[in-house]
């Protein structure tokens, strides 16, 4: 299959952004073949720096984190409540909750087990889904209690007033 991949490279010098350069590459059978400079305003006498951007970075990271969680790959923390456990990643917990970040920083351990009192297991599963995917479905009758649990765990995006709550029919 012959695909055309376009990379956008932004030229940057000491005075900040000088020009935008666009270059194309063709991908065929796993090999890259050079394309054409589509536009260029660079000066050859100045040292060049290039800004490279992965256009699908955010969606790829979300799907990668979900895959790592689903496969239980590289998990390094266990969360326990109501006699059940969930495995997770310290980095994800820390990025999504100052509560977990502080707890993990104050108690360094290779693979800690965190016991959560007064946290329903269903809420924990939904909070982890929210942390890994950025979204979760919660029933209307569970929403107030779920948000209180998220508030206690200081989950970013849920602990403060939610920006948008979609009703699913």
TrEMBL record:
Query: What would be one Pfam family of this protein?
Result: BTB
Keyword Nucleus present in the record's keywords: the answer is: yes
Q: Which UniProt keywords apply?
A: Nucleus
Give the GO terms filed under biological process for this record: regulation of transcription by RNA polymerase II
Q: Domain of life, per the record?
A: Eukaryota
Q: Which GO terms describe its cellular component?
A: nucleus
UniProt-recorded name of the protein:
BTB domain-containing protein
Q: Which InterPro entries match?
A: BTB/POZ_dom, Dros_DevTransReg, SKP1/BTB/POZ_sf
Q: Which organism is it from?
A: Ladona fulva (Scarce chaser dragonfly)
Subcellular localization is given as:
Nucleus
Entry-linked Gene3D superfamilies: Potassium Channel Kv1.1, Chain A (3.30.710.10)
Can you give the residue ranges of the BTB domain?
A: 75-140
